[in-house]
């Protein structure tokens, strides 16, 4: 690896498994120091142990990032342990995918909390640190389904669409502070979560894969690669973008 993130400090949310872990793994290989956050403390510590075994410096913060105090504690952990914060990868999320009228008030609130409030609170606490130092990289994990109106995704798209909209607003607001804000928008990705959905609703997974021109899900490392690029100093002139990594599912 090129060590493009050597000595940079990164917070990765939803890092216990799946795309979040793949991002953390790539950041570690690029030389970053890591604060990993996840709702599940057991999964989180297992992920941290694997990364420490590769030589990475890793601390963890478990909890629900949709809660303001947990987000604050997570961002401050970067300053407490490593003295600063350079990169925030807002990956925490997870869709409750069902027809809109099959949702309950609880599942609607959970979908918004997981995917939008986690991002809002983490950005709100990270940006003052980045602005004070004149440098920052925020990379949000959005969803290509916001662009293509995928079936059973209306509530999920409401949350991810909010993230996409916040990306452009923050990018413009902080453009002269050395801070870039971008979103990587995957389509269907070959994650443990996808396997869990397939076990319950294989027809939904088949339909989602069928809309991908390449005829396959993305791989986690393919998403992490784009996130890593946007987190580097060399991506300094890329901001306010929603970049799809989607096998051609939407184009242009």
From TrEMBL:
<comment type="similarity">
    <text>Belongs to the short-chain dehydrogenases/reductases (SDR) family.</text>
</comment>
<dbReference type="GO" id="GO:0016491">
    <property type="term" value="F:oxidoreductase activity"/>
</dbReference>
<dbReference type="InterPro" id="IPR020904">
    <property type="entry name" value="Sc_DH/Rdtase_CS"/>
</dbReference>
<protein>
    <submittedName>
        <fullName>2,3-dihydroxy-2,3-dihydro-p-cumate dehydrogenase</fullName>
    </submittedName>
</protein>
<dbReference type="InterPro" id="IPR036291">
    <property type="entry name" value="NAD(P)-bd_dom_sf"/>
</dbReference>
<dbReference type="GO" id="GO:0032787">
    <property type="term" value="P:monocarboxylic acid metabolic process"/>
</dbReference>
<keyword id="KW-0560">Oxidoreductase</keyword>
<dbReference type="InterPro" id="IPR050259">
    <property type="entry name" value="SDR"/>
</dbReference>
<dbReference type="Pfam" id="PF13561">
    <property type="entry name" value="adh_short_C2"/>
</dbReference>
<dbReference type="InterPro" id="IPR002347">
    <property type="entry name" value="SDR_fam"/>
</dbReference>
């Amino acid at each position: 690896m090129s060590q493009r993130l050597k000595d940079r400090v990164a917070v990765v949310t939803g890092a216990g498994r799946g795309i979040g872990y793949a991002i953390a793994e790539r950041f570690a290989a690029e030389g970053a120091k890591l604060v990993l956050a996840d709702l599940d403390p057991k999964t989180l510590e297992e992920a941290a142990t694997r990364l420490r075994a590769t030589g990475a410096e890793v601390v963890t913060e478990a909890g629900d990032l949709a809660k303001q105090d947990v987000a604050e504690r997570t961002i401050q952990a970067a300053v407490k342990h490593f003295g600063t914060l350079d990169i925030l990868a807002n990956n925490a999320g997870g869709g409750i995918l069902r027809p809109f009228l099959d949702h309950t008030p609880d599942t609607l609130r959970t979908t918004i909390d997981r995917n939008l409030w986690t991002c809002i609170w983490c950005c709100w606490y990270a940006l003052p640190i980045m602005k004070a130092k004149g440098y920052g990289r925020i990379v949000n994990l959005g969803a290509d389904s916001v662009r293509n109106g995928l079936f059973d995704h209306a509530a999920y798209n409401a949350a991810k669409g909010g993230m996409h909209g916040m990306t452009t607003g923050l990018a413009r607001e902080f453009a002269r502070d050395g801070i870039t804000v971008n979103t990587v928008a995957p389509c269907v990705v070959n994650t443990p979560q996808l396997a869990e959905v397939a076990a319950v609703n294989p027809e939904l997974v088949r339909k989602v894969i069928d809309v991908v021109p390449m005829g396959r899900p993305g791989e986690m490392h393919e998403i992490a690669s784009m996130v890593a690029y946007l987190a580097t100093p060399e991506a300094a002139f890329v901001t306010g973008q929603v970049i799809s990594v989607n096998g051609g599912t939407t184009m242009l």
